[in-house]
Amino acid sequence: MSNTPLKLGWEEWLSLPDLGLPAIRAKVDTGAKTSALHATALEPFGPIDKPQIRFTLRPNPDDPDLEVVCAAPVVDRREVTSSNGETELRYVIFTTVQFGSEKWPIQVTLTNRETMAYRMLFGRTSVTEEMMVLPTESCLQPVLSYDLYKGFPRRKATKRPLRIVLLTREPNNYSSQRLKQVAEERGHVLEMVDTRRCYMAINATQPEVHYDGKALPQYDAVIPRIGASMTFYGMAVLRQFEMMGAYCLNSAQAIGASRDKLYAHQLLARHRLGMPATAFASSPKDTKDLISLAGNSAVVVKLLESTQGKGVVLAETNKAAESLVDAFRGLEANFLVQEFVKEAGGADIRCFVVGNKVVGAIKRQGADGEFRSNLHRGGSAHVVKLTPEERKVAIKATKVMGLSVAGVDLLRSDTGPKILEVNSSPGLEGIEKTSKKDVAAKMIEHIEIHAPIINTAIRTKSQNF
Question: Where on this chain does Mn(2+) 1 bind (predicted)?
């Protein structure tokens, strides 16, 4: 490196020439110890004393068809704890990083960053003493472009039959049957497994999921349709399948974020996505101020664990709101108090997002005298044309949650679309029958594109490094 300090902003373009990657947009984060690179379909190979790793990387978050296969020597396997507290055993490689004309070797861990805005995290151990990181600046080094990948082979949907597992406790409902029908029509095998009856052998060398007395096989992909009552255990089962190398349509981490309504609202607010004014508290002395934070007119009080409109109550006056809040507190329940958007007229819009696209949208209207628009509560539905802003908000909300498939519920307000909820297991019946769109096929197509080319467990017994 030269004697002049290399200055980096909070985001930069870089290249990884040893891996054949001419351009990666990375987040520079000195709060993270180790650099991390997006990698899927990890395949360890080579002798035990000189292990190698082959993996697949999609460098452009907005272009899932661009796929590069990389290989590198493995220098370690290490437990890494992410910012959300999740601990993962990762492969560690040495490779060369290049900013402009400057290059040097760094250690990089490999992990799935499919739902992240940046395919690489540049941590503090990759920053040398001769460098300066300016967290208020952006792209201080030469700006590259994904156009540098022109001529690289494009990823096509896999043509091989896939073995898919659908985690559900309701194998006979519309959504389960449609997914099974479409998968089999496209030549795949889809097996339904009751999440509750799964149990796990948790170890570093050969993780397994057992079911009815025997180990389940290796699957190419998992479709999680986990009910609210099974969230905790369902996430544990899903993490086990992730450890076994299967592609999960929605990750355990993303499902957990979407199911925690308070955390979901905090995430949406952090990314400046519109939503009804929302307040949360636990002290009974805060009742009046809590209600005022959500607005001084009508408010909605909802349980954090509510689904399908259950546990959601409208209070049309401050007095009624105070009584409701006190009653919910008496039950020691966790709840939100939220602004009531009157101009929505008891209607909301369900946007069904798969990947980076809204594949269907319907407007749901509550029954007469009912402010909740849920179809399970007698609401009606019809096709609706989204505005560009509504479409953009739905896609961004799905990304913020880290989901690949989501049902995003919006309200049309005088100040623009407001997000009510991001559902990680949206039903297919209402959206398909109303919009006449084959949403199940879009979900299976997404799996065909993202299922790993090589499906192996992260580690085998013969690879003790």
Answer: 409, 421
